[in-house]
Amino acid sequence: MSSAHTDPDSGPDSLPDPGERAPEPPPKRLGMLAAIAATVIALDLLTKIVMVSWLRDGERVPLVGDLVSFTLVRNPGAAFSLATGMTWVLTLVALAVVVGIVRFARRLRSRGWALALGLVLGGALGNLVDRFFRDPGPLQGHVVDFVSVGWFPVFNVADSAITVGGAVLVLLALLGRDLDGVRTPDARA
Prior knowledge:
This protein is mainly alpha-helical and 189 residues long. Helices cover 45% and strands 11% of the residues. The protein has a three-stranded antiparallel beta sheet with strand order 1-2-3. The protein is elongated.
């Protein structure tokens, strides 16, 4: 006695039509990611060059009263000046982030993910340029920060890109969007 299970959807009507093609996957978004990252790096580098040539260390130029100003700071640490004695570790962490993004980029087909990862990649590389090429030396260079808003720590274009990119990554994860641009199935289903 055979206990064969018959699936109501497995009949002859459920077979794919040989003339019907599977939908094309979205195009890869590596170019978009690279363009966004390159733009962030260029803006970050340009603004840092301008600020270093214009301001002295610690100099403050008010823009909107006491709320927004340009203030030149050389940051040996991470955001909020954390881990100031661990600059070389921060450099290695940033390099790991860059390598991780480059590995993910091969599967990238989502515009949202390309935007988010491009921002994070550009920001990480922008600050890595400082870590490698600014004083006191390679792997220990201090990052140039120059935007001061209220009580918030002084930051730069790269920091802004990393923050916005990170927020977009969280939003994409909450919306269940995958690297390939497809919404992941609901885990409760």
